[in-house]
Amino acid sequence: MRNIYLLVFFITLTFFANAQHSQTGSVKGIVKSSDGLPAEHINIALKGTTKGTVSNSNGEFEIRNIVPGNYTMIASFVGLLSVEQSVDVKAGESTTLPDMVLHENTSELNEVVITSIREGSYQAESSSLASKSPTPLKDIPQTVSYVTKELIQDQKAFRITDVVKNISGVNQESITGDLMIRGFATGSNVMINGLRISKGWTPTLISNLERVEVIKGANSALYGYADPGGTMNSVTKRPLDVAAQAFSISAGSFNTIRAEGDFTGAVNESKNVLYRVNLAYQDAGSFRDLQASKDILIAPSLSFLPSDKTRVDVDLIYSSINGRVDRGQPLLGGADGKGLLYSTPISLIATYSNSYNKEQGLSLLASLNHKFTDRVSFTTSFISYHYNRDYLEHRVNNAYGRDGAGNEMPTLVEMRLQRGTQENANFNSMSYFNVALQTGPVKHTILAGYDFARQTTPAGTWQTALAGAYRTADNTKALNSYNPAKASQYLLDKNGNPVPNMPHFDLANPNYTPQEITSYFTAVTPRDQTLYYTSGIYLQDQIKVGKLQVLLGLRKEFYSDFENYKKADEKKVTQTALIPRVGLVYGIAKNINLYSTYVEGFQPQTAGVIGDPDLYGGPFDPLTSNMIEFGAKSDWLSNRLTVTTAIYRIEQNNILVSALDANNPDLLTQRGQEVSKGFEVDINGKILPNLSVSANYAHNEATITKSDDPELVGKDKEYTPNNMGGIWLKYNVYNGMFSGAGVAFGGNYVAEQNTGQYGNITLPSYSVFNAALFYKIEKVKLSFNINNLTDKTYWLGRGRSSVTVNPGAPRNFMFSVGYTF
């Protein structure tokens, strides 16, 4: 009897459910981005009701059980223009809407960061880096190159050094992340969301980045301190108003294991408080001996939008690195030419297994943007960054061991000991107004602002180093160098060779056994406290008259530094600069703009150098530069593809280079002048709706034009290949039995490099090819990446050492599984 009652109950329930369903209707459709591809995670809602959903990975959506009637369907996403569409819902019917297409909103409130989620796009349309206002890249009279998060993900890049191959004119000089832009080395400063900090020793993980930008040439007229070749800016991901979570795990060569998480959504129902949390972990070995590392990134962010006129963003970024410093592959002495590079295996490193390098960085960023009217807005932002490092390093001393007669022993390299702590704190803030005016046919976008930056090295940090290179005859101390004419002053071994304070590293019989550093003669010295601060006021006007745009900018910079800070002989050093900027843009066609620009750069030799003249030399004059650039920016294939071309000339003066002093490897001197001239091309976007491309080429000629050493004048600058280029193509299948599959292929070429005063050898040119396979099934994405397909042996640079070179990685692979929910 009980079963009969249950049967009647379910029949009744089914009847009422069907009756209810027959009295309602449903709506379905597809959302696409402006390039015609499916757009996922888009908010879909029926205006005036609580009903809504989110589009899936194919851009599809469906809302069911809708009471019949006329409604307005709205599709929205942060950073995109909302789209509304009327729909008539009928009882018992499913209504299919025409495709809804969303376009990027270039007037997004946050003027430093604009977020885009276009699936698979390698193209960015605007940037605030070059003008401190959201400006289409085509209207900026200066080259701004970039790498989007889609390209970062497709190439499985995990550090900045993994992505620079996609940017014209940028090459990696060392394993640890030293870069050259347009022939000039980048300094210790980088930018996060347009705010400057001093970077750490090792590049951190980049899972929290929306894109990486490089503005070519100095940008001192807006930001003050700037490298002459260009400035790299990391743009962080913004919180979204739709709930979305992504998680991936990866495993590959060199015992590498990675895990990444990206979680975002709204905190409240009104969706004016948004959050995002990016997490990343990597436990990786290396093709280099002893180079295992464990890395952590924790990056939560919060956005508050109290009204459609105000936005507040807060980011916290914590990074931790636990590994060793890689100074490169040591080479045998006495060999000539290219054979020298093959004298030791590329895996060899001159260090010991008790070496370590522990780094931690913590950044707090905040920005507020408020629109008073449609024409007047105000932005203020700051970053507070704290960095500390604890390390023990056994490293080469850029010299080979000496025998009793003072001759080099080519299989033995002198070693240095560095044990200590390092710490610095950065604070950088900027505040500015943007005002839009129109006087007759002339449109103005006026920028007026004030910036302040401060960097300190606090008390309490220290370093232990060897107190001399060779032991004295009584074995009670050590002398800086060996003089065979005074051999009796030195402790000699049974072969009559001087005994080093720290044993030489034997390249023929490498031994990584831990060393007891208490057996060396060492000296512990406190690191000097340092302080510098700088501020600037600036005014800029972007003028538009018909097809012509003119950018005029002027900045007054005030820099203060301290020699022997907090010592009895403390001396304040002040410098000022008036920095102009002029740019022109002219539209010769709807899709083509020509531009020209003149900028000047100003870069004080900061506290870390000027604060300890006994160690580094100096004080030094500021590094100054100027650049003239001409180019064209264009959009093709219905704005799917952008092409930027540029020719330039950069002159920099007062360059710091190593003095090559054997008794003081840290001693610096200034070179008079260097000039870099070149041509660049960047191509980004889609050739077809399902064929993406990122390509670049750069030709550069950098020469030394002034020097106290007349033999250097006219010679090529170090680590400046004349030609570089790269391409990455990705093809996706969106229909048919192979829907969800994809394949990518690319390669990079770097011409030969002269190492100049750092050993005077030529590093050979190289081409490296990479490939990837993808497959996406609903919420799961599989990928398989292979780098250096042909297993090419090559060298990135020499890292400013006359004894070591920096090899690139041999063939390696990475398999990843990602899940989005």
TrEMBL record:
Domain of life: Bacteria
Membrane topology, record value: Multi-pass membrane protein
Presence of keyword Coiled coil: no
Keywords carried by this UniProt record: Cell outer membrane, Ion transport, Iron, Iron transport, Membrane, Receptor, Signal, TonB box, Transmembrane, Transmembrane beta strand, Transport
CDD domains linked: ligand_gated_channel
InterPro entries to which the protein is assigned, alphabetical: Beta-barrel_TonB, Beta-barrel_TonB_sf, Carb-bd-like_fold, Plug_dom, Plug_dom_sf, TonB-dep_rcpt-like, TonB_rcpt_CS, TonB_sidphr_rcpt
Domain TonB-dependent receptor-like beta-barrel: 306-789
Pfam families: CarbopepD_reg_2, Plug, TonB_dep_Rec_b-barrel
PANTHER family xrefs: FERRICHROME IRON RECEPTOR-RELATED, FERRICHROME OUTER MEMBRANE TRANSPORTER_PHAGE RECEPTOR
Family: Belongs to the TonB-dependent receptor family.
Name of protein: TonB-dependent receptor
The species this protein was found in: Chryseolinea lacunae
Lineage: Bacteria, Pseudomonadati, Bacteroidota, Cytophagia, Cytophagales
